[in-house]
Amino acid sequence: MATADSLPSSQRRVPGSVDIPLAKWPIPSKGDISIGDASEAADKAVDSFNTSLSKGDYNAIADLFVEGGYWRDHLAVTWDFRTVKGRTQIVSFLEGGHRLTKISIDKVQVVPFRADASVEGIQVFINVFAKYGTGPGVARLIHDDGQWKIWTFYTTMNALSSRKESIGPNRPIGAQHGYREDRRNWVERRQEEISFENRDPDVLIIGCGQAGLSVHARLKMLNVATLAIDVSDEVGDAWRKRYHQLVLHDPVWYDHMPYLKFPEFWPVFTPKDKMADFLKSYAEFLELNVWNSTSLESSSWDGEKKQWTVVLKRKHKDGAVETRTMYPKHIIQATGHSGKKNFPEFKGVENFKGDVLCHSSDFRGAKKNTKGRKAVVIGACNSAMDISQDFYESGYDVTVVQRSSTTVMSSRAVLEILLSTTYYEGGPPVEEADLLTWSSPSEVYKAALYDVTALQQEFDQSILEGLNRVGFETDKGPMDCGLWAKYMQRGGGYYIDVGTSQLIIDGKVKVHHGASVAEILPYGVRLDDGIELEADEIVCATGYQNMRTTTEAIFGEAVASKVPNVWGYDKEGEANVMWRPSGHPGLWLHGGNLAVCRYFSRLLAVQIAAQLDGISPV
User: Fold this and answer.
1) Are 65 and 90 in contact (CB under 8 A)?
2) Residue 380 pLDDT greater than 60, yes or no
3) Helix, strand, or coil here: 496?
4) Which of 28-42, 251-265, 497-511, 573-587 has the lowest mean pLDDT?
5) Mean pLDDT over residues 139-167, rounded?
6) Cβ distance 86 to 68 under 8 Å?
7) DSSP state of 414
8) Is the alpha carbon torsion for 6, 4, 551, 562 positive or negative?
9) pLDDT, tens digit (0-9, with 9 covering 90-100), for 294-346
């Protein structure tokens, strides 16, 4: 059996990831579906579900599904993320214990379920009621053997009855009215809150990028005492200090942060420094407790007390260094999507006499007015391609070394095909778009991505053919399911094209495919096919290791040994480790792009708050 590392680039996945199959599409529906018929079918399904649930008749609930139907649950049924498939598994799922009390209808739609509109059905937005809280859900019904049956069913619990979010009618007063001898103003109260002088946080977050800030915001709104730390000098430095030309490849309407959306005048694609400034302002506006220039010196877990002991070293702006020992009950590792940078130990690296030899994460930008200088970029995905374009625009002779194939998708295709049905200018509220996205079981979503990729390949045909013609090899991703499937299963291996493809097609950026670096020469590199490339600068855009490697670096092997490899899919199609119990008590991992962090930060915060309130297992 082939291992994940031995597979072709298009099929490669992180260790521990299951290559889940594509769902089979239902038989195309016949005839138009009226909204009246849809509402009647939805009412009948929901009434039958609630009646059977109240009686504990799980077989009757399973009979509401088509054979091979899916139930995806995030916290409403169990304190984990689960997807079960088939009537027998649905019965076993419920018999294993659940907390559901009922569901109700929010709204009903008649929609196509497949990109070519060949499969149409009824989409029912539902309200989910469980023992400890509520959440939204989605049921998708198809016509099966003369009856309307549930094809996919999604339930969540993203709000706790024990803790109301401090928003809207529950917002804080913000003032201390009346006579008080010790009355303090807002600044004094904030200084006391952020200093944690006489108290410990319940939650310590390591990392203050979009992951750390998003979950901090969620916890704050649930009134969970939280402190976020980061070794950088300022919030946003993780973006601010990246390469000079970096701009987000995702559009603004996809990237909103929790509680504070980007304003209407914001550009479609956010430059890195603008993103950095936004995150800094976000932390200030939401009054998040952030300690910059702070490192975790040591940590240990007390299983009896169910708390951590952590030693923090904090450098203040006046140069003073403070050491604090704290006892949080939970730690969230929010140190980025990946782990340690993958910087190969090339033979001869000590002999390089050029100016720069670095990993892409350390690259700050091409030098200006440097016509005639040569650069070699090792790697052929997002960072490599952006850096290559920067080199070319600065006058360099640049060559990309592409060892294996890359999934390439134009930025226009991302907007007009990949995201166009859920995230777009004037589209549905982002909360609804998120719900639609994550309500699909992964097998179904992967099947939808197969269709999307077919459309994208046609849309980007000229670019892809041009790249292949000059020796840059492209692929269609896992099972021909494209860029997003690669993101979830591998965390890399793709390029959202914002210009470098045409430079390669035109011969302005050279490409050498199919070889690896054998040796670093004093003024260049030798590839394992014997080709030598001259270089004044070498950038290794060789990616990162699994996020678990950072877990080990921070907490040591004793803790990391209990945490499996991160990302990829488990056998049910749920993400491994991320946003759910990590394998080590009191430790959670959180990360992803802005949209992923926005959605799962809420589910993660609910799990932690539920443990603090004693209503879920610790």
Assistant:
1) yes
2) yes
3) strand
4) 28-42
5) 95
6) yes
7) I
8) negative
9) 999 999 999 999 999 999 999 999 999 999 999 999 999 999 877 778 888 88
In whole angstroms, how far apart are CA 170 and each of 163, 165, 167, 222, 368? 10, 7, 5, 11, 54
Length of the chain: 618
Q: 455 by DSSP, 3-state: which?
A: helix
* 30 token code pair: 């016949």
> If pLDDT is split at 50, 70 and 90, which confidence band does 137 have?
very high
What residue has token string 């000590």? 350
Report which DSSP code applies to 575.
B
- 8 A C-beta contact, residue 45 and residue 141: yes
**Average pLDDT over every residue of 102-115:** 96
Please determine whether the domains at 35-157 and 168-175+182-339+546-612 fall in the same fold group of CATH.
no
Q: Which long-range contacts (CB under 8 A, 24 or more apart) does 299-306 make?
A: 299/331, 299/554, 299/555, 299/559, 301/559, 301/584, 301/585, 301/586, 301/587, 303/585, 306/585, 306/586, 306/618
Superfamily grouping for domain 349-540: FAD/NAD(P)-binding domain (3.50.50.60)
Largest CA distance in the chain: 83
Using alpha carbons only, give the angle 299, 305, 310 rounded to the nearest 5 degrees. Answer: 20
Q: How many Cβ atoms from other residues are within 10 Å of residue 106's Cβ?
A: 12
**Whole-Å CA distances, 276 to 250, 259, 390:** 15, 18, 20
State the average pLDDT over residues 211-233: 98
Of the candidate CATH numbers 3.30.70.20, 2.10.109.10, 3.50.50.60, 3.30.460.10, the domain formed by 168-175+182-339+546-612 belongs to: 3.50.50.60
